[in-house]
Design a protein that fits this description.
By secondary structure, this protein is of the alpha+beta class. The protein has a domain of about 80 residues. It contains six helices and 31 strands. The strands form eight sheets. Strands 16-17-18-19-25 form a five-stranded mixed beta sheet, with no helix packed on it. Strands 3-2-1-31 form a four-stranded antiparallel beta sheet, with no helix packed on it. A four-stranded antiparallel beta sheet has the order 4-5-6-7, with no helix packed on it. Component of the RIX1 complex required for processing of ITS2 sequences from 35S pre-rRNA.
């Protein structure tokens, strides 16, 4: 089945004696280990992944701690595909959703920007005064956002950064968001393009802030009792989770219910008042939050939300991964495969079509080499260590052209509509564990199905009773109408006969008088 959600996680050793960590893919429903990629020990926010598409296989990047090395993996091979020597050690990396650019931050506050397919170093600049902690691209890839220990969040336009004529232009900085007072710990970008995007930032100053990225306006400040280390934002942008350093995860609602002047319940956004609008979370939970924070019991090192917004996935510094039911906060399942290591990265996406060990099942090919021909991996070239104007002028990029739709195609990675509907129905079906038990969401789905069946039976019964009542009503109506019509006809006949008789008697009397 192609529509299968997988969990992508990266681990790092807690001490040098443990050896190297791994990158692993687990099935979200069964927690089965699908594939592992070894010889990597990337620190938090030093791992990036590009998903496989219908025409190209994806890849993974992992910056190694204490070394100026970047390991490159693809899903078709469980070994390192390429080792890239970097100009210096990186503290964080990020790639855009199209897999075109890779950005890396340094401990001195610098940022590098490479083109992945050619390896060209388009720009390197001093972006901050201190260490760069986190880098994020917006969904459309037009903006790069950086957060640093100097407490600032800077916004960079990618088109200006790759412009040959503006390499040393100080105006490359589009905007600086400087309302935090201590180092930035995490950044989350909302959905949408740059002009309609909002971002969440967290800091060691015990706050998380919601910004309008296009104008740089601070919308709301959320105050927490502890330092917030990690953020996870729902795709609908209605809820976000904030994990503090003590292992407590706060669920914050961005919308709340209230009564309007007419007494009706309406939904309204929380906050939005600007710099002076502060929402305190934790000590006095929001009224819409009936449940308290999730107590993990140990330090949280990574956090993500599943694709279907069913689970909050939490990785700990001891290597345990917890799955919490999204609405009820109940612990549904746990993965202990990586116990003893630290979870440094978590994300979920659809199972890659070219995943090692599962290629023949998805692509229906005879061998791995045939699968590579059917779904070639996106090219990754060694990154340049210094800017080279000649390379930028030549700018040779290896790329794959889209197939001509007018020509007959036999791409095993393409869906037809019927197959898509069948796989989607299987993808959203509740999952039963091997021991026959089901998660809380599966129980809710089963109860909903039982309720639907019960309601359908009641509707069928009511329809049957309605048919019987209608039949009785029709019979009564017909009998009443026939009775009335029969009575009126008899009365009319009697009146006519009486009138005829009286006329004859009058005529007789007149004839006698005459």
């Amino acid at each position: 089945m192609r529509l299968e959600e997988v969990l992508f996680c990266a681990t790092a050793p807690q001490s040098p004696e443990q050896g190297a960590g791994t990158i692993a893919l687990h099935d979200v429903q069964s927690t089965t280990l699908l594939a592992t990629f070894k010889q990597t020990s990337a620190a938090p926010r030093c791992t990036a992944v590009l998903e496989s598409s219908n025409t190209q296989g994806g890849f993974m990047l992992a910056a190694q701690p204490g070394k100026s090395l970047l390991n490159v993996y693809n899903f078709q091979k469980d070994q390192i595909a390429l080792k890239i020597v970097l100009p210096e050690k990186l503290t964080c990396i990020a790639i855009d959703k199209s897999g075109r650019y890779c950005a890396g931050g340094t401990a001195q506050g610098g940022i590098y920007l490479w083109e992945i397919a050619s390896g060209i170093l388009f720009n390197s600049w001093d972006a901050h005064y201190r260490r760069v902690n986190v880098l994020r691209f917006t969904n459309d890839g037009t903006v790069l956002i950086s957060g640093s220990e100097d407490s600032s969040v800077n916004v960079w336009i990618v088109a200006r950064l790759v412009d040959n004529e503006a390499q040393n232009d100080p105006a490359n900085l589009h905007r600086s968001l400087s309302d935090h007072t201590l180092p930035i710990t995490d950044i989350q970008c909302g959905v949408g393009a740059f002009l309609t995007c909002r971002i969440l930032t967290s800091s060691a100053d015990h706050t998380a802030k919601l910004w309008d990225l296009s104008t740089g306006t601070l919308l709301t400040t959320f105050q927490f009792p502890q330092i917030i280390a990690h953020l996870a934002w729902d795709v609908t942008e209605r809820i976000f989770f904030a994990a503090d350093i003590d292992g407590s995860i706060h669920k914050v609602h961005l919308f709340q219910q209230r009564k309007n002047a007419a007494g009706d319940m309406i939904q309204e956004a929380v906050g939005g008042g600007g710099t002076n609008d502060i929402v305190r979370v934790g000590d006095n939970e929001q009224e819409s939050q009936k449940k308290g924070p999730i107590q993990v019991g140990e330090s949280v090192s990574a956090m993500a939300i599943s694709m279907t917004s069913t689970y909050l996935i939490v990785g700990t510094s001891t290597g345990v991964i917890h799955f919490y039911d999204f609405p009820s906060h109940q612990l549904v399942r746990t993965i202990s495969t990586h116990k003893g290591f630290s979870i440094t990265h978590l994300t979920s996406f659809l199972k890659p079509l070219d995943l090692i060990g599962h290629i023949s099942l998805d692509l229906n090919v005879g061998s791995i080499s045939d699968a590579r021909d059917a779904l070639p991996a996106k090219p990754v070239q060694p990154f340049q260590r210094m800017k080279d104007s000649k390379s930028r002028e030549a700018h040779e990029v290896t790329m794959f052209l889209q197939p001509n739709p007018t020509l007959p195609q036999n791409n095993p990675a393409e869906f037809n509509y019927e197959e898509f509907l069948r796989d989607h129905a299987s993808f959203v079906r509740p999952f039963s564990d091997q021991n026959g038990s089901m998660g809380s969401s599966a129980f809710e789905s089963s109860a909903a199905n039982d309720k639907i069946s019960e309601l359908e039976a009641q509707v069928a019964q009511l329809k049957e009773q309605l048919g019987k009542a209608k039949g009785i009503n029709d019979a009564m109506w017909d009998s009443v109408v026939q009775h009335v019509m029969t009575g009126e006809n008899g009365k009319q006949d009697k009146v006519e006969s009486t009138e005829d008789g009286s006329g004859d008697s009058r005529r007789r009397k007149r004839s006698r008088g005459a």
